[in-house]
């Protein structure tokens, strides 16, 4: 895996460094990487067979999910994406049938309209997979995100498989700093395939 900025780096420093590094990746390289990540996911049975996919809606230089959302919907599978509640520092997932249903929400991120009901019963999520964003991941599935703790709060009670999406430049060979509330992902999907973080 790519080298991180050291085991003594705190989350704030890592966040700044990886955000800066991500901005330097040419758009064409990002598009090629994201296409390879999507291909790896499609070949991964846990993802390919999940009837419901929870996924973030990508923006800027994040690993792209818009093509992925359209591909999953075209297969006749279900997709749910998050709405952000900044007051509670929480996210909830809401089912969509088209990208056209999304509207600009918190921080201008595309999300479902306010009247779309949430999948708020854990029983509704059994058998699903959740695609998790991050700036950098380590081999144990720990991640550094944007600092709000939104995903960790959701994942603490999520019953399905958690898959981080990462270009190889977003992988750390050093353990990342963690807090008690951090929830690691179960798998990481990269350009080269999907590998397990369990049992490490």
Describe the structure in your own words:
Helix content is 24%, strand content 23%. By secondary structure, the chain is of the alpha/beta class. It has one domain: Rossmann fold. The strands form three sheets. Strands 3-2-1-6-9-10-11 form a seven-stranded mixed sheet. Strands 4-5 form a two-stranded antiparallel sheet. It has a two-stranded antiparallel sheet with strand order 7-8. The longest helix is centred in the N-terminal third of the chain and has 16 residues, at 27-42. It is globular. Its cofactor is Mg(2+).
Low-pLDDT segments: 1-8
State the shape. globular
Strands side by side in the biggest sheet: 3-2-1-6-9-10-11
Based on the coordinates given, report the CATH architecture.
3-Layer(aba) Sandwich
What percent of residues are in strands?
15-25%
CATH topology: Rossmann fold
Q: What is the H level of CATH, i.e. the homologous superfamily?
A: NagB/RpiA/CoA transferase-like
Q: What is the number of strand segments?
A: 11
Portion of residues within helices: 10-25%
Largest sheet: 7 strands, mixed
Number of continuous helical runs: 5
Question: Which CATH top level class fits?
Answer: Alpha Beta
**In sequence order, what are the helices and strands, one letter per element?**
HHHEHEEEEEEEHEEE
Mean pLDDT equals: 90
Structural class: alpha/beta
EC number: 6.3.3.2
Organism: Thermophilibacter gallinarum
Protein name: 5-formyltetrahydrofolate cyclo-ligase
Cofactor: Mg(2+)
């Amino acid at each position: 895996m790519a080298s991180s900025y050291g085991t003594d780096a705190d989350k704030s420093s890592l966040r700044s460094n990886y955000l800066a590094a991500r901005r330097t990746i040419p758009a064409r390289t990002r598009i090629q990487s994201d296409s390879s990540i999507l291909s790896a996911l499609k070949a991964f049975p846990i993802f390919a067979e999940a009837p419901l996919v929870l996924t973030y809606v990508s923006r800027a230089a994040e690993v792209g999910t818009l093509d992925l959302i359209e591909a999953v919907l075209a297969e006749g599978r279900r997709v749910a994406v998050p709405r952000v509640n900044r007051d509670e520092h929480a996210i909830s997932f809401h089912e969509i049938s088209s990208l056209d249903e999304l509207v600009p929400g918190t921080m201008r991120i595309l999300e479902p309209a306010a009247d779309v009901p949430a999948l708020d019963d854990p029983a509704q999520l059994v058998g699903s997979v959740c695609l998790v964003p991050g700036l950098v991941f380590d081999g144990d599935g720990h991640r550094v995100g944007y600092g709000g703790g939104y995903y960790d709060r959701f994942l603490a009670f999520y019953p399905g498989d958690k898959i981080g999406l990462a270009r190889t430049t977003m992988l750390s060979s050093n353990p990342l700093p963690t807090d008690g509330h951090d929830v690691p992902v179960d798998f990481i999907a990269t350009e080269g395939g999907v590998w397990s973080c369990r049992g490490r």
